[in-house]
Amino acid sequence: MKVGEQADVPEEAPGSRGTVERATIEGERVTATTVVSAAPEAVFALLANPHRHHEFDGSGTVRRAVSGPQQLTLGARFGMDMKMRLPYRITNRVVEFQPDRRIGWCHFAKAVWRYELEPVPGGTRITETFDYSGSPFRWAIELAKFPTVNAKSIRDTLARLREIFGTPEP
Hints:
Layout: E1 24-26, E2 29-36, H1 40-47, H2 53-56, E3 62-67, E4 77-84, E5 86-98, E6 102-106, E7 112-120, E8 123-131, H3 138-143, H4 146-165
Antiparallel strand pairs: 1-2, 2-8, 3-4, 4-5, 5-6, 6-7, 7-8
């Protein structure tokens, strides 16, 4: 997939509620959005608890938190048991934090996984972004086709968040 193209996933009606919009790859960012029927505070509480990340991870790589606080804050570190073909451990650091609105973390590769929350009638719009624009390993991320892989993972994560929190009434 070339930069700027949209991920190869089914397209939903623009602005439709309770669905995940098409994941897009623009520059060095992969993004998708959905709406759930929960307040931003409830969604943020789940995202900010690393011990619950396996509950909503759509990539299938997150196994469990092995270290870290129950509630993340700016600068907090947390370790995760992961598996992508082989098991491994990774340590993340929270690099973006605005309570109930935005949280982002990265590991040694300096690619950021970001969640932005916006209150909307009946719930919260969640935008998930994989942003590798600040990574010194951009070439390797693209060579490994992580943008395309993450487009599917982001859609699957947002679908899991819809299952957890429900979808607003039309």
